[in-house]
Amino acid sequence: MARVMLLIVALILSGPLQAQILVIVNAHNPVATLEKKQIVDLFMGRVSVFPNKQPAQTLDLKAGTPLRAGFYKYLTGKNEAQVDAYWATLVFAGRMSPPRQVADEKALIQEVAAEPAAIAYVSKQPLPANVKVVMELALDE
Q1: Collapsing DSSP states into helix, strand and coil, what is residue 32?
Q2: 24 closest CA partner among 129, 95, 139, 140
Q3: Could you tell me where the DSSP H helices lie in the chain?
Q4: Beta strands 100-102 and 118-123: pairing type?
Q5: pLDDT in tens, 21-64
Q6: Is 47 helix (H, G, I), strand (E, B) or coil?
Q7: Which one of 47, 51, 53, 111 has the fewest beta carbons within 10 angstroms of its own beta carbon?
Protein backbone atom coordinates (compact mmCIF):
# COMPACT_ATOMS: atom_id res chain seq x y z
CA MET A 1 0.00 0.00 0.00
CA ALA A 2 2.86 2.38 0.80
CA ARG A 3 4.33 1.78 -2.69
CA VAL A 4 1.02 2.66 -4.33
CA MET A 5 0.75 5.88 -2.33
CA LEU A 6 4.36 6.76 -3.17
CA LEU A 7 3.68 6.16 -6.88
CA ILE A 8 0.55 8.35 -6.77
CA VAL A 9 2.43 11.16 -5.05
CA ALA A 10 5.26 10.90 -7.59
CA LEU A 11 2.80 11.11 -10.49
CA ILE A 12 1.06 14.12 -8.98
CA LEU A 13 4.33 15.95 -8.39
CA SER A 14 5.68 15.18 -11.85
CA GLY A 15 2.98 17.33 -13.53
CA PRO A 16 1.70 16.82 -17.07
CA LEU A 17 3.77 14.74 -19.47
CA GLN A 18 5.57 16.72 -22.09
CA ALA A 19 7.00 15.67 -25.41
CA GLN A 20 9.86 17.76 -26.59
CA ILE A 21 10.60 18.58 -30.19
CA LEU A 22 13.86 20.05 -31.40
CA VAL A 23 13.97 22.27 -34.47
CA ILE A 24 17.36 21.66 -36.06
CA VAL A 25 19.57 23.16 -38.75
CA ASN A 26 23.00 22.33 -40.11
CA ALA A 27 25.81 23.28 -37.73
CA HIS A 28 27.28 25.59 -40.41
CA ASN A 29 24.06 27.57 -40.69
CA PRO A 30 24.71 31.02 -39.12
CA VAL A 31 21.20 31.11 -37.63
CA ALA A 32 21.53 30.50 -33.89
CA THR A 33 17.89 30.67 -32.77
CA LEU A 34 14.47 31.05 -34.32
CA GLU A 35 11.19 32.25 -32.86
CA LYS A 36 7.96 30.31 -33.13
CA LYS A 37 6.53 32.68 -35.76
CA GLN A 38 9.63 32.30 -37.93
CA ILE A 39 9.32 28.51 -37.81
CA VAL A 40 5.61 28.69 -38.64
CA ASP A 41 6.36 30.96 -41.59
CA LEU A 42 9.02 28.56 -42.90
CA PHE A 43 6.99 25.37 -42.51
CA MET A 44 3.77 26.92 -43.83
CA GLY A 45 5.52 28.30 -46.91
CA ARG A 46 5.06 31.97 -46.04
CA VAL A 47 8.80 32.52 -46.39
CA SER A 48 11.52 30.43 -48.02
CA VAL A 49 14.53 32.08 -46.41
CA PHE A 50 16.00 32.26 -42.94
CA PRO A 51 15.96 35.65 -41.14
CA ASN A 52 19.45 36.30 -42.54
CA LYS A 53 17.96 35.97 -46.08
CA GLN A 54 19.76 32.69 -46.82
CA PRO A 55 17.59 30.07 -48.56
CA ALA A 56 15.84 27.53 -46.35
CA GLN A 57 14.89 23.99 -47.30
CA THR A 58 12.19 22.65 -44.98
CA LEU A 59 12.08 18.92 -44.35
CA ASP A 60 9.08 17.14 -42.91
CA LEU A 61 8.24 13.71 -41.55
CA LYS A 62 5.87 11.50 -43.51
CA ALA A 63 2.16 12.13 -43.01
CA GLY A 64 0.65 10.09 -40.19
CA THR A 65 3.66 10.37 -37.93
CA PRO A 66 2.67 11.35 -34.35
CA LEU A 67 5.63 13.74 -34.10
CA ARG A 68 4.51 15.51 -37.30
CA ALA A 69 0.97 15.84 -35.95
CA GLY A 70 2.22 17.28 -32.67
CA PHE A 71 4.62 19.66 -34.41
CA TYR A 72 1.94 21.24 -36.61
CA LYS A 73 -0.71 21.23 -33.88
CA TYR A 74 1.63 23.11 -31.56
CA LEU A 75 2.82 25.57 -34.18
CA THR A 76 -0.37 26.28 -36.08
CA GLY A 77 -3.24 24.87 -34.06
CA LYS A 78 -4.17 22.78 -37.12
CA ASN A 79 -4.34 19.00 -37.36
CA GLU A 80 -2.52 17.11 -40.10
CA ALA A 81 -5.54 16.99 -42.42
CA GLN A 82 -5.91 20.76 -42.19
CA VAL A 83 -2.20 21.29 -42.86
CA ASP A 84 -2.30 18.92 -45.83
CA ALA A 85 -5.40 20.69 -47.18
CA TYR A 86 -3.62 24.04 -46.79
CA TRP A 87 -0.70 22.74 -48.80
CA ALA A 88 -2.93 21.13 -51.43
CA THR A 89 -4.49 24.53 -52.09
CA LEU A 90 -1.11 26.22 -52.47
CA VAL A 91 0.24 23.45 -54.70
CA PHE A 92 -2.91 23.53 -56.87
CA ALA A 93 -2.52 27.30 -57.27
CA GLY A 94 1.14 26.75 -58.23
CA ARG A 95 2.29 29.07 -55.48
CA MET A 96 4.48 26.88 -53.28
CA SER A 97 5.73 23.38 -52.64
CA PRO A 98 5.26 21.77 -49.23
CA PRO A 99 8.24 20.72 -47.14
CA ARG A 100 9.82 17.60 -48.60
CA GLN A 101 8.80 14.55 -46.60
CA VAL A 102 11.39 12.15 -45.27
CA ALA A 103 10.78 8.63 -43.95
CA ASP A 104 11.97 8.98 -40.36
CA GLU A 105 13.89 11.09 -37.85
CA LYS A 106 17.19 9.40 -38.60
CA ALA A 107 16.88 10.39 -42.27
CA LEU A 108 15.91 13.95 -41.26
CA ILE A 109 19.04 14.30 -39.14
CA GLN A 110 21.21 12.92 -41.94
CA GLU A 111 19.72 15.33 -44.49
CA VAL A 112 20.13 18.34 -42.20
CA ALA A 113 23.72 17.30 -41.50
CA ALA A 114 24.42 17.14 -45.24
CA GLU A 115 22.56 20.30 -46.37
CA PRO A 116 23.47 23.73 -44.92
CA ALA A 117 20.08 25.18 -45.96
CA ALA A 118 18.00 22.42 -44.38
CA ILE A 119 15.71 22.83 -41.38
CA ALA A 120 13.71 20.03 -39.76
CA TYR A 121 12.30 18.85 -36.46
CA VAL A 122 12.98 15.73 -34.44
CA SER A 123 12.12 14.42 -31.00
CA LYS A 124 14.51 15.38 -28.22
CA GLN A 125 17.52 13.11 -28.49
CA PRO A 126 21.30 13.26 -28.63
CA LEU A 127 22.32 14.85 -31.94
CA PRO A 128 25.50 14.63 -33.99
CA ALA A 129 27.88 17.59 -33.95
CA ASN A 130 27.01 18.57 -37.53
CA VAL A 131 23.47 19.72 -36.59
CA LYS A 132 22.33 22.25 -34.00
CA VAL A 133 19.12 23.14 -32.23
CA VAL A 134 17.55 26.52 -33.03
CA MET A 135 14.41 26.04 -30.95
CA GLU A 136 13.02 23.54 -28.47
CA LEU A 137 9.26 23.02 -28.28
CA ALA A 138 7.58 21.46 -25.24
CA LEU A 139 4.24 19.87 -26.04
CA ASP A 140 1.79 18.92 -23.31
CA GLU A 141 0.43 15.42 -23.78
Answers
A1: coil
A2: 129
A3: 2-14, 36-43, 66-76, 80-92, 105-114
A4: unpaired
A5: 999 999 999 999 999 999 999 999 999 999 999 999 999 999 99
A6: coil
A7: 53
